Amino acid sequence: MSQPLRLIETSSPLPAHADAVVIGGGIIGVFTAYYLARRGLSVAVVEKGRIGAEQSSRNWGWCRQQNRDARELPMATRSLELWQQFAADTGEDTGFRRCGLLYLSNDEDEIARWARWRDFARTAGVTTHMLSGREATERGRATGRAWKGGVFSPSDGTADPAMAAPSVAAALMKLGGTVQQNCAARGIEVEGGRVSGVVTEAGTIKTRIAVYAGGAWASSFCRQLDIRFPQATVRQSIVRVSAVAEHLPDALHTARVSVTRRSDGSYSLAISGRGRVDPTAQLLRFAPQFLPMFAKRWRNVFPGGLEGIRGGHETLARWQLDAPTPMERVRILDPRPDAAAVKQTYDRAVELLPALGQAGIANAWAGFVDSTPDGVPAIGEVPEIPGFILAAGFSGHGFGIAPGAGHLIADLVTGEEPIFDPAPYNPARFKRSAWGQVADF
Ligand SMILES: Cc1cc2nc3c(=O)[nH]c(=O)nc-3n(C[C@H](O)[C@H](O)[C@H](O)COP(=O)(O)OP(=O)(O)OC[C@H]3O[C@@H](n4cnc5c(N)ncnc54)[C@H](O)[C@@H]3O)c2cc1C
């Protein structure tokens, strides 16, 4: 594991009973547990590896409304408020700042797309500023070049992927929630047609509510329960360079490369959408549903290698509850970064912002982005197993919208008025049709 991550200690014994068990200690799992605990429920989080060690610490940290699909915009907007509220309520630092996001372009079509999104966003009460050529060039002066146009979204921001999930887990523990690390959930117990317990490698926790927030492992876990959840992963790589003396934009996107300032002053560099698809049995199983998405992104998605099989998260195997599972074999999905992408990303970033060249590459890592066929997450109770709530498939944007997703799940569990309409996320849509509209990224 080469990405920075705050390590937290969690030493409480496995509880025999909990009002709710959250499986998976990524950003979705810990925010869900936090909002449940705030409502007075006893909550246990079980994480097979370390809190935040998979996608949730490997991302850029962008928390954005900008260019969001209409189905996700309400969740994005509420999440930005909740990131701020979380810090005020708990004193825990996730590194969240409304620093604004800057998009620069010399491509008229891209600029026109952003303008269309601005018009749509206005109808949802979201402010974003289109930049003229002069304004874009001025805001992007660190690049030392002229731009035809751009966007600045002042109410968006970033949080720190190294700090966010562990900080939320720490806040949960202060509220009395328990967190087990190195503890895989192997399956679910069902009695009288609904969830009655979560079976872990360390014993069983009796509960009527199991929230599965297992990221890239979701489809193979669901398969054990005879739930069909179409999911595919793409391996994306990130480069980190140390702090430099010059003042660079906090969060800058261009079509060739994107640059994000981290809390410690270092920078994450990445090429938006670029990734490798590592063939697995699961990928073949769901390939027909994912063809429209891959067709839309073919310019940036390349064939991969054995990293998917090595990870084991996309196995079609069935496992037993009384023996080690693939999740205990691979505690943390830590795929190799794509060497070609690392070089290209660094070269492009230095070409865009020469100051970054002073620092050299500090480290690089990769993460498996887990997607649904329509690019919108699955959040909700699975009708086949009352009490089993799925929260996965965040399709490359789950970090920024995690507080809203966690709040929504707590609303659904406790029967309160949902913070926003849950209908677009209903997992049942994959039964009806897998060919829904593919979200824009
Ligand atoms: C390179 C990259 C860049 C990205 N950039 C952004 C961005 O800028 N903004 C944004 O909003 N999103 C971004 N994303 C997406 C975002 O990181 C994810 O959508 C989000 O982190 C998903 O969170 P999660 O909790 O669902 O999954 P994860 O963080 O993957 O966590 C799932 C956890 O569940 C655990 N688990 C699984 N099965 C079990 C089990 N049976 N028992 C116990 N534990 C289990 C795993 O060990 C893991 O820790 C990016 C992703 C990547 C990889």
TrEMBL record:
Keywords annotated in UniProt: Oxidoreductase
InterPro entries membership: FAD-dep_OxRdtase, FAD/NAD-bd_sf
This protein's record includes keyword Transit peptide: no
ATP-binding in keyword set: no
Catalytic EC class: oxidoreductase
Single GO MF descriptor: oxidoreductase activity
Enzyme Commission number(s) from the entry: 1.-.-.-
Taxonomy, superkingdom: Bacteria
Residue intervals of the FAD dependent oxidoreductase domain: 19-412
Protein family membership: Belongs to the DadA oxidoreductase family.
Identification of the protein by name: NAD(P)/FAD-dependent oxidoreductase
Source organism of the structure: Polaromonas jejuensis
